[in-house]
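User: quick one, fold this
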Amino acid sequence: MDRYVRGDPEQWPPPDSHFGQALLDALALQPAIGLAALDTALRVTGSRLDPEHFNGLELAAGARLTDLVREQDAQALAARLQRVQTSREPLIAHRQRMSGTSELAVTMTALPLAAPPGEPAPLVLALVNATKETRRLDLLFDAAAMIGSSLDVAESSQQLASALAPGLGDEATVYLVRKVYAGEEPPERVARGDQGLRCVAMAPEDGTWPEDYIRPGTDLPHMPNTPAVQRFQRGEAYILPDRAAISEAMQDDPALMRRLVPPKATAVMQCALLARGLILGGVSVWRTAESGPFTDDDLQLLQEVASRAALSIDNARRYTRERTANVTLQRALLPPAGTDTAALEAAGVYLPATSGPQGAGGDWYDVIPLSSLRVALVVGDVVGHGLRATAAMGRMRTAVQALADLDLGPGDMLTHLDDLVLRFGESTEASYEDVLASTCLYAVYDPVAGRLTMASAGHPPPGIISPDGGFAFAALEPGPPLGVGGLPFEDTEVDLEPGSMLVLYTDGLVEHGHEHDLAAGMDAFARRLATLDRRADLQDTADAMARDIAPAKLTDDATLLLARVRETAPADVASWPVRDDPAAVTDARELVVGKLAEWGLPDLAFSTELMVSELVTNAIRYAGGPIGLRLIRDRRGKVLVCEVSDPSNSQPRLRRARPTDEGGRGLFLIAQLAVRWGSRYNTTGKTIWAEQALES
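Assistant:
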């Protein structure tokens, strides 16, 4: 006996002892432990198994053990048992799912019997029903794999509900504090009153619910101050074992029961979602009479799953808060969605990324009124996402607004902007340089000439939809992205018919759904644009195109800018050449006064005559011919534009004349009479312009 206790395998059974038989008898008489003998081919030669304790499992003589387990596990189990047969090392507490039974899992211990050296040994198996423990581990594993894969609060809540039903109950409901759902910090715990809970997720998602039952997105009604509610507000988890207890928790209010309790539910487990000592919300798991009562083990399992889910939801809440602030800043830095001028009608849409952690980025657009009724359309894409990209976008848009006031051509504008981006890079920390690269398209539309002039810094070309429905991308030769430096940007001119629609966009819009294949995205985008109703409201059209993109799948932020161009009627434009002769000033004044009388604007005759006199006189005195004079009437914007062009490149400057000066008051007077005024360069010199408001 002593040699056996010390582990001598040759002393079995112990001499002069009934220990071995007593041990076998003890094992055989335990209904919770199943015994089976296997031959060298892993066939059952005998067994002692109580089917009641093993969900009806039978180990019939002659059956192969590997035929009784799940098909996908058979080969691996055979290899394990064969290793025991050859190595004589037992297999201890191996967890194995069986087939042909009701969700049975067993803990299997395989012990080798004596056999000649070099030959496989027969085995004795000891089996214990581990279905309950396996179910618990499976639920925890599935919950861990499912919960936390999203940074969306609602999606994380739905993952929690789906992990609990049907895994732990028949139905599950997750509700969050409204502030948490919005990404804000949860409030401190309160002992009374409504915590402001909102139903966020339900499982099964496609369940049949009563008409007045809560739905995701609806707020929970005010709960009475019952002991059960107080336990929840203290963050405790508990079980209401029957419908009477559930009704008592709601003060026997039938309206609350209809709103909050599934019709067939007979028991519920309630658990608060706690993170950092604060209540983020709660989860309810319901069972019907067919599923049996909840146990304390079930409640403990719910608490484990809920604690993990609470951390994931809190992380998602923090991300939601940061993303909301980022998107809010991004939208605040963009212009109003709609613009309506004499030159065009425009509508813009910005879509932040919704798939992954990117959120808002550096995509932007702008519509900038220029002189002489012209309008600049701009769309750009700053590399990167997050606050850095948003800040870089804000700097970029501010720079474009400032440079646009100089009335530069598109190519010159991008050249100056390229220099600014290079300077930004020199004065920026190295960790921020990744967001300073940018693409940009700058286009200027002149409604008087009906011409679009544009240049691109690495940006895709705009789409043009003609009034007859034809579509094509503009034949535009893009330059390098901003921040490269040293390369030119070429202007491209396109004549547009009135009613033509321009489509400006960023690559996130066209690459969506095409795995960053810009060519394939452009083809699909062209087919989509060819079907647009060019007479429909622009904002409705832009919003509809945005809705076509699945919000949960947008991997990059995107911008869309639609513009329908107009043309200034020839009757609203008057232009004359002016002789390089001081006597021509009188003729210019008479021409302007006559045209204003023809347009029914006699009230502007004096101020316009004074402007023309000063501007033409300066052109004759300092620049010489040829000189041009033009008036443009904008009936929509109620603006009258007066222009004088000359061949000089000198920039006029406003200054205040001293009392003894004989000149220097002309531009000062013009600035007092005009709403806006300025000058712009062209290929032949410059144009000085001034705008006056027409009477309503």
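User: anything notable?
Assistant: Residues 1-9 have pLDDT under 50 and may be disordered.
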